[in-house]
Write a structure and sequence with these properties.
Organism: Parahaliea mediterranea
EC number: 7.-.-.-
Family: Belongs to the NqrB/RnfD family.
Strand content: under 5%
Number of helices: 17
Main location: membrane
Number of domains: 2
Keywords: Cell inner membrane, Cell membrane, Electron transport, Flavoprotein, FMN, Membrane, Phosphoprotein, Translocase, Transmembrane, Transmembrane helix, Transport
Length: about 350
């Protein structure tokens, strides 16, 4: 009798890489729309310009590596990287800043290591950190949100990107920046006297975080990833803020709710920390991985040099992901201890 020769794995599901990537792109829509409402069209311009660059550079890298661009572009991974980086960048970034970030993400962080599935570091976060270290002035030039200042229109957004010398925009510190630099006002007075702070977090930022939370919960519902890493990240961040919060003195690092709804917290928790390539893969490993990122985010925000630390925390833990997986392997059937060591 002839046996059917089929290699493992034998289980097949309805999900594929292109389908997962499209689900992620769809889940970013609520956050992008809220950012556009509060900060104008700059984020959309970042995404569109970055997306074109990402597809072009992905095609170039694939041709240089002797691969078929038509086949590999279908996985939408380059577009996802561009969208995530475009969201993370200030809304009115000049064209060259977006170009340097996309090139760093696609060429340096992705194809230098062999392409999708082989990159040890999150490409979007590599691009962001390269820009933050190299061009700190441009990377901290955030426009004031709606209700605090005038929101530029589409023409201003295009000028800021492609003719930055002719665009005279207004920028200011983010709520995390303001809180970090505060050394004289009580939190209550700072909140009352500065319109940049909203009801729970930063004005505009809190609603963007809620929108990214909604998109992340939808991805959880679709089983694109498991809850372990994002929940551990948010729980560790909130726990650190609760333990150290002193009630609102001038030296306070901020309340748990402020940290959860300011900066890139929810965006990082559901769209960055959950990257299946660069994160831990075991269940216990994801819990440890997410919790350590939350711990690092709080430490860097409050005591470090950067007010929003998601990118640095993620890249540091990308280093540690293989180590975490090594020591959190599930127990092998028939063995008393985990792994096969």
């Amino acid at each position: 009798m002839a046996l059917l020769r089929v290699t493992s794995p034998h289980a097949h599901g309805p999900m594929s890489t292109p389908k997962v990537m499209r689900q992620v792109l769809l889940a970013t829509l609520p956050g992008v729309l809220v950012l556009t409402h509060f900060f104008g069209f700059g984020t959309l311009v970042n995404i569109l310009w970055g997306g074109l660059l990402a597809v072009a550079l992905e095609s170039l890298a694939l041709k240089l590596r002797g691969r078929s661009p038509g086949f590999y572009l279908k996985d939408c991974s380059a577009l996802v990287t561009a969208v995530l980086l475009g969201i993370a960048l200030p809304p009115y970034a000049p064209w060259w800043l977006v170009a340097v970030g996309i090139a760093s993400a696609i060429l340096l962080a992705k194809h230098l290591y062999g392409g999708l599935g082989y990159n040890p570091f999150n490409p979007a976060m590599v691009g962001y950190v390269v820009l933050l270290i190299s061009f700190p002035v441009q990377m901290t030039a955030w426009a004031p949100p709606r209700g605090v200042g005038e929101v530029p229109g589409l023409l201003e957004a295009l000028l800021a990107c492609f003719a930055p010398a002719s665009y005279d925009g207004v920028t200011q510190a983010t709520p995390l920046d303001v809180l970090k630099q505060n050394n004289s006002l009580l939190i209550g007075d700072l909140w009352k006297d500065n319109p940049l702070f909203g009801r729970w977090g930063g004005a505009g930022w809190e609603w963007a975080n809620i929108a990214f939370l909604a998109g992340g919960l939808w991805l959880l519902y679709r089983r694109i990833f498991t809850w372990h890493a994002p929940v551990a990240f948010l729980a560790a961040l909130a726990l650190m803020a609760a333990l150290i919060y002193d009630g609102g003195s001038s030296a306070s690092g901020g309340s748990p709710l402020f940290h959860l709804l300011s900066g890139a917290t929810m965006f990082g928790a559901f769209f960055i920390v959950t990257d299946p390539v660069t994160s831990a893969v075991s269940v216990r490993g994801r819990l440890v991985y997410g919790a350590l990122i939350g711990l690092l985010v709080y430490v860097i925000r409050v005591w470090g040099n950067y007010p929003d630390a998601v990118a640095f925390a993620v890249l540091i833990m990308n280093f540690a992901a293989p180590f975490i997986d090594h020591y959190t392997q599930p127990r092998t059937y028939g063995h008393k201890t985990g792994g096969t060591r």
